[in-house]
Amino acid sequence: MSAVPSPTIDSSRSDEPAEDLVIKAEACDFSFHYGSFNALKKLNMPVYDKKVTALIGPSGCGKSTFLRSFNRMHDLYPGNRYEGEIRMYPDNLNILSPKIDPIEVRMRISMVFQKPNPFPKSIFENVAYGMRVRNVTKKAILEQKVEEALRAAALWNEVKDRLHDLAFNLSGGQQQRLCIARALATDPEILLFDEPTSALDPIATASIEELVTELKQRVTILIVTHNMQQAARVSDYTAYMYIGEIVEFGETNQIFIKPQKKETEDYITGRFG
Amino acid sequence: MSARLSAVAPDHEAKLRALRALIATHKRWDIIFAGIGVICLAFGMLAFVALFFQMAIDGTPRISWDFFTSFPSRRAENAGILSAWIGSTLVMFVTALAAVPLGVGAGVYLEEYAPRNWMTDIIEINVTNLAGVPSIVYGLLALGLFVYQFGLGQSVLTAGLTLALLILPVVIVATREAIRAIPIAIREGAYALGATKWQTTSDHIVPYSMAGILTGVIIGLARAIGETAPIITIGALTFIAFLPPSPIGTEFPFVNFDWLMSPFTVMPIQMFNWTSRPEEAFQINAAAAGLVLVVMTLAMNGLAIYIRYRLRKNIKW
Question: Which of A95, A249, B41, B296 is the most exposed place for a label (fewest CB within 10 A)?
């Protein structure tokens, strides 16, 4: 994605065979406040390039709040305050800095929401909107990008004959894949998923999960899920969060098989949460 | 697997009877309230239906082609509503042209751009309150401001702007409500793709709230078309036997704006003028004009319903 190599992490603390891990982004003592409420407390966590990182934890633990900080969604509402940093590489940029325009951050870090939220426009226009925002008007480029994104979201074959139909006519699962295509069309560096399957039936959920595992070839993924099996199935790394703190972060296998902390184990085995 | 039916306890019958009696008592209130509700509704509806039918019975025989194409006259059987309906149409045109951009602009600003602070709160409360200000107060304001201060005279333009002020709160409130009906998820979806506030507003917020905005505009216009007090206050004529200059000319540039400054009258004033005459025949003219005015209002409301239906067909939330 970028020519400059990202700094690599020292992987000596892991027992796994050394793999070329690249940090794409990193929370450094990141805290978040809603008014006077301290929702996230001094979080430290890497997000590895071209990997899927899952955020799990009970309702209200701050996992969505954390995720939505990555594309400065909180800037849309008054009374929110970031503290500390979320650094993005290769430019080593603190994306929370007031000097960085949130629009720039959102152009580089895309997001898929909890409930499918297509615009009341055609399938084509939904996927093309990100390009329209970037002043792409050439029809040929738009068409090519839309097709590419729809193929990447495994939706092309189902909609190629009705690109100009309303997006609302698609099923829930198709709508969510459309939203993924919309987010992919602009080649984001990181893709955020905020409980992307919580409004979907099991079959649609399976197709989204499959898609997430495929997409990590091309983009770094951060996913919030309340479903632990889902985290185990799709992610490479997992962070367990509880009341605004990261209790444990590690490789998904390790977190689910050999959690280091008692709290993590209680949550994962269902004794709590 | 075999199973036996559950056994009947000794007091089962008694319990069931008590339960049924209780439900019957509760349901009695359903019937009582439904009765009261029908009576309330009947009062309102009967009064309206009676008024409308009385007017329709009196006025219908008078309605003819001549009635629409004649100027008012001293002889009741020759009098018509030509200057009144043309005046009403032109005034409504000016009102819509002024109220739509101002109201939509203000509504969008308040919803999407205004910072959330006490100033905005005060403005919001006042906009809502303005909708309840008596229309004659707008008439007085317009007399001072448009007629004397700006020197616009007792013209179509003055009347249009006055009524635009009158319906502005309605348009602003309708705009804001339509915008608020758009789910936050849609807005966030646009922002998450890197859209600016203006891109989100112009590509999504305004188009998706158009149905609600247009409905509000038409309901506002339907109110404005029946307004009499502010129009009398700014000095509309009550007897006028000529038309404003035509907006469309035969010579280049084919449009002219002289009509804006022309004296005029409107439907409700024409009615008022006729009802204040002693002759019976003029009362019938007034009823006929009233019937036309009511039909115009109903047609506008019908149009609002149709537009809402058409524009919302593709939007489901």
Answer: B41
Q: Among partner residues B116, B190, B316, which is closest to A78 by beta-carbon distance?
A: B116
- CA-based nearest residue to B134, from B166, B95, B99, B172: B166
**C-alpha closest to that of B212 among B88, B77, B107, B128:** B107
- Phi and psi at B120, nearest 5°, equal -60, -40
CA distance B101 to chain A (A): 24
Taking CA–CA distances from A112, the nearest residue in chain B reads: B189
Q: Does the distance separating the beta carbons of B194 and A120 come in below 8 Å?
A: no
Whole-number Å distance between alpha carbons of B152 and B260: 9
Domain A11-268: top CATH class: alpha beta
- A238: its two tokens: 């997992």
All residues at 6 or more sequence positions from A167 whose CB lies less than 8 Å from its CB, including other chains: A118, A119, A120, A121, A122, A123, A126, A175, A178
Is residue A74 less than 8 Å (CB to CB) from chain B? no
Nearest Cα to B64, choosing from B43, B86, B80, B42? B80
**Lookup: tokens for A154:** 């495994």
What are the residue ranges spanned by the domains of chain A?
Answer: 11-268
Cβ–Cβ < 8 Å for A262, A271:
no
Q: Which residue in A69, A76, A175, A187 has the most chain B C-beta atoms within 10 A of its own C-beta, making it the best mutation to test that interface?
A: A76
With a CB cutoff of 8 Å and minimum separation 6, the contacts of B193 are A106, A107, A110, A129, A130, A133, A182, A183, A186
> Is residue A82 within 8 Å of residue A32, measured between CB atoms?
yes
Exposed, middle or buried: residue B176 (CB in 10 Å: 0-12, 13-18, 19+)? buried
At B248-279, the pLDDT tens digits run: 766 667 677 777 878 888 899 888 888 888 88
Distance from CA of A47 to the nearest CA of B (A): 20
Phi, psi for B108 (deg, rounded to 5) = -65, -40
Please list, in sequence order, all residues whose beta carbon lies within 8 angstroms of the beta carbon of residue B257, skipping any fewer than 6 positions away: B247
Question: Which residues are CB-neighbours of B242 under 8 A, at least 6 positions away?
Answer: B71, B83
Chain B residue with minimum CA distance to A102: B194
> Which amino acid is present at A45?
M
Count of A-B CB contacts under 8 Å: 65
Q: What stretches in chain A show pLDDT beneath 50?
A: 1-14
Q: What is the largest CA-CA distance in chain A?
A: 56
Q: Could you tell me the pTM of the whole model?
A: 0.81
The tokens of A156 are what? 């092309």
Token digits for B61?
């025989």
- Measured between alpha carbons, how far is A78 from A60 in angstroms, rounded to an integer? 20
Q: Is B190 close to A120, i.e. CB distance below 8 A?
A: no
Determine how β-strand A220-224 pairs with β-strand A52-56. parallel
Tens of pLDDT, residue by residue over B177-223, are: 999 999 999 999 999 999 999 999 999 999 999 988 988 898 899 88
